[in-house]
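Q: Here's a chain of 341 amino acids. Please give me its 3D structure as tokens.
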Amino acid sequence: MNESWARISDLAFEAALAGYIVALVCYAIELASTRGAEAGQIAGAGAGRESVRSATEYGGTSTLTRTGSDRGEIGAIARPLAPWGVRFGRAAVVVTIVGATANVISVVARGLAVGRLPLGNMYEFVSVICAVTTIVWLIVLARTGARTLGTFVMLPVVLLALVAGTRLYVPAAPVVPALNSYWKWIHVTTIAISSSILLVSGAASVLFLIRGRIERKRGATAASEPARPRSILGVLPSTATLDRIAYRTAIVGFPLFTFAVIAGALWAEVAWGRYWGWDPKETCAFVTWVLYAAYLHARSTAGWRGRRAAWISVLGFASMLFNLFFINMVVSGLHSYAGLN
């Protein structure tokens, strides 16, 4: 084992965690500031009109202010600064990119330190999930521009990274002999990638349900008005956008998850001499697969689109997290080699 690469990996993960926390705070600040941004802009514009009117009414002399450079440009309009909340949002995206880069460096350095794919224990697995989830989020952001969703995507990423860096951390070391199979690396890699994609899908489904509840309370008319938001959640992307994000990411993640389950069965045959044994982790993975299959079917079935389908997606998301943490950390079984026991 290379101690230098192991140290670089640990430092890079700490940097990634710090970046994710800062990004989460910046996303949250933008989300909180959006509620009063429009009111402040209207008040500021009204104050400007009022000052000109008052000067005229009370016999004052109105003046024309020059803008521009010292070359004598008159009437040039300076480009207004973006609201401070928007600037925090833009900074959040930059810090997210920095954090994701540090996370990827940590994963690569860990692999170089141990001379294998860095997926041999729960710490390495969750670190990869954090990196892939963040990259998927950046791709979704680039395609949709739904930056206000960042708070709710980065929150589970920060929680996962905190758990990985404290509770799940184990020093770089070789894996147990049962894990030395190429099917293992195929299985765990695709599980990590598919779980990361489905994490974004699950967050979008949760927010779809929350926003839908808010809109129903406000009524159809109030929900469709482009007025100032009445709550922080009111500035989230529309339910149509959230539904589209949840569905399209699930379309990508589910086939990968299916392949990962099949690869896991092939790996089990090599390691334990059977394809399927209803081990607790295998059983929970099967339940998760059924729930996501039901979600995709419901999403394309008339009468089940919308809230019903979103609830199935949330159940699949909860089952995936239950399998990731509770099964690995509490339940004893053939998969109890996650580095905690």
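Q: Can you summarize the key feature?
A: The first helix runs from residue 3 to 57.
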